[in-house]
Amino acid sequence: MNFFKNKREEGSTLILALFTSLAIGMVLASYLLLISSRHKLTIRSMNWNAAIPILEAGIEEALTHLQTDSNSPSANGWTPNVIGGQPVFTKRRQFADGSYFNVTLYNAALSNPLIYSSGFVLSPLATNHYLSRTVRVTTTNPPSLFSKAIASGGTVTLGGNVLVDGFDSHVGSYDTSTNRTATGGIATDSTAAGAVNIGKGNVYGTVTTGPGGTISIAGGAIGDVAWNTSNSGIEPGWTNNNMNVSFPSNAPPSGGPFLAPTVTASGGSNIMYLGTGTKTLSAFSGSGSTPIIVTGNAVLWVTGDFSLSGGGYVQILPGASLTLYVGGSASLSGGGVINGTGLAANFTLIGLSSNTGVSFSGNADFVGTINAPQAAISLSGNAVVYGAVIGKTVSISGNPALHYDQALATPTGLMVTSWTEL
C-alpha cells in the first residue's frame, strides 16, 4: 500500500478547500462592504434631500415674517445681528427629530429683502454630526397698479364739488379727523391743455400730467391737508408734468373652459351664488330679482355687457372677494356692489380691451377698484368711492367723493425672483 500518496492527495484537497473558503469569504466580505456602503449612501442621500424641506421651512418663516411683521422686524423671535457690518435679523427653529434651520434676513425693511436659509439634519450612523444645505433667495415687492386715486391715459375732469383724498384701511375706516391723508393723487399721460380739470373740486394729493399738459382749476384746491383746509389754488410743489406710463390691455382669466354660475331660486328671486373659482357668462343684466352673492374668492368673466339697475346688486360677504372681468360695457347703478369686507382690495372690476365704457351712478357707496385702461369711466351721483380708478378718460360729476385707499399701494406679498443653492 502507498500511504505517502494518500497523504499528498489529502493535503492538496485541504489546501484547495482553504483557498476556496478564502475566496468565498473575500467575495462575501466585499459584498457585505458594498451593501454597507450603499446603505450608508442611501441614508445619506435621504438625509441630504431631507435638508431641503427644512430650509424651505426657514424660507416660509422669513416670508411670513416679512409680510405680517413689516413694521416690527424683530417681532416673533427674530434677533437683530450684524454680519459683515450689515444689520440683519436671524432666527433658528428646532424640530422634534433633531433637525433645525437657521435663517437670516438682509434688507428686511426694503422692497428687495434677501433671505439666507440653512437646513440641518442628523448625519447617518454618526453621533451629533449634521448634514446641511444652504440657499439664497432674492425677493421683491410686486408693483401695484393702484398707486394713485385716479390714473388715466387721457383727460380727467372733476365737475361740481368733487372731493379726492386718501386714507389707510390698515389703520381703520376713513375719518376726516384721524384717518385722512393727502395721498389722493391724480395722474394722466395726456399732454393736452386742460389735461386735468379740477374746477371747484378739492384734491388732497399731487396732480401730474404728461409733458406739456396743463391743469385747470376754478376755485378748487390741490395740495396737502393743511392747504386744502385754508386755501384755494395749487400748493407749490404739488403738481408736475412728467407722467409717462403706458397702460397695457387686460387679458381674460387663463385656463378654462369655465362653467356658468349656479342660479338658485329662493323667495321669488333667482340668486347667483359665486364661491371660490372662476365662472363665465355671456352677459349679465341684474335687477332686484337676480342678485349675485359672493361667498368665496370668486372670479366672474362676463364676455359681453354687465349691468346693475333698479334693485339689482352684488353682495360680497365678509371674508370673500370678487374679481369681475367685463368684455363689453359696464354699468353699475341700482343697489350697486355691497362690499361686506370693507376693503377695496376685495373687489376689482377689470375691463378687457373691448370694454370701452364703465359708468357708476346712484347713491350706493362703492368699495373697490376699477381697472379699465381702454374705457371712458364716468362716476356720478352722490355716492362715495373708497378705492382707486384706472381708465382711458375719467369724468366725475355731481357731489361724490373718492377716498383713495393707500393700502392698495402696499404690496400684498413678496415675489421670489431667484433661488440659488450655495
Give a short synopsis of this structure:
With 422 residues, this protein is α/β, with parallel strands linked by helices. The protein has helices spanning 3-68, 225-230; strands at 79-83, 86-94, 100-106, 114-122, 130-140, 150-152, 156-158, 163-167, 186-188, 196-199, 202-204, 207-208, 215-217, 221-223, 233-234, 239-240, 262-266, 269-274, 277-281, 284-286, 292-294, 297-302, 306-308, 313-316, 321-326, 330-332, 336-339, 347-351, 357-360, 366-379, 384-396, 401-405, 415-421.
Describe the structure.
- The chain has helices at 3-68, 225-230, and strands spanning 79-83, 86-94, 100-106, 114-122, 130-140, 150-152, 156-158, 163-167, 186-188, 196-199, 202-204, 207-208, 215-217, 221-223, 233-234, 239-240, 262-266, 269-274, 277-281, 284-286, 292-294, 297-302, 306-308, 313-316, 321-326, 330-332, 336-339, 347-351, 357-360, 366-379, 384-396, 401-405, 415-421.
- With 422 residues, the protein is an alpha/beta fold.
- It has two domains: 3-140; 150-409, no CATH class.
- It has a 22-stranded parallel sheet that branches. The protein has a six-stranded antiparallel sheet with strand order 1-2-3-4-5-33. Strands 17-18-21-24-27 form a five-stranded mixed sheet, with no helix packed on it.
Helix content: 10-25%
Category by helix and strand content: alpha/beta
Low-confidence stretches: none
The beta-strand count equals 33
Largest sheet: 22 strands, parallel
Task: Tell me, rounded to a whole number, the average pLDDT.
Answer: 87
Q: How much of the polypeptide forms β-strand, as a percent range? A: 35-45%
Gross morphology is elongated
Radius of gyration, rounded?
Answer: 34 Å
| N-to-C span | 82 Å
Domain count? 2
Number of helices: 2
